[in-house]
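I would like you to help me understand the sequence and structure tokens below and explain how sequence relates to structure.
___
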Amino acid sequence: MSRVCLVCQNIDCKSRGSEQLMTELQKRIDDKGLTDVEVKSYMCFGACQEGPNIVLYPEKNWYAKVKVEDLDEITEHLAGGPHVQRLDTIDSSLKELIYQLLDTGVM
């Protein structure tokens, strides 16, 4: 099964650099040769104050307030490294709601 990095592209996350994050994340994934990982935009996760947000799916990992400097650690996680705990700050009830939507195919 392929994996997806969903990067929020709503206005709040865009104003904090999410477009650059998408581009830089794709470069790092390509450099690592992670052919099973795709980077896609997502309209909004509903956590604008915590953006930019990246959700790794189907792993169901949510990274908040992501900066370009964090992408190497996220890429390492995608390559089998540890979860980046310091970026995992979103309320569990919101996570569960978004994960349920993703599980039903609402992407």
Q: What stands out?
A: The chain is about 35% helix and 20% strand. The radius of gyration is 12 Å. The longest helix spans residues 18-32. The CA atoms of residues 28 and 93 lie 31 Å apart.
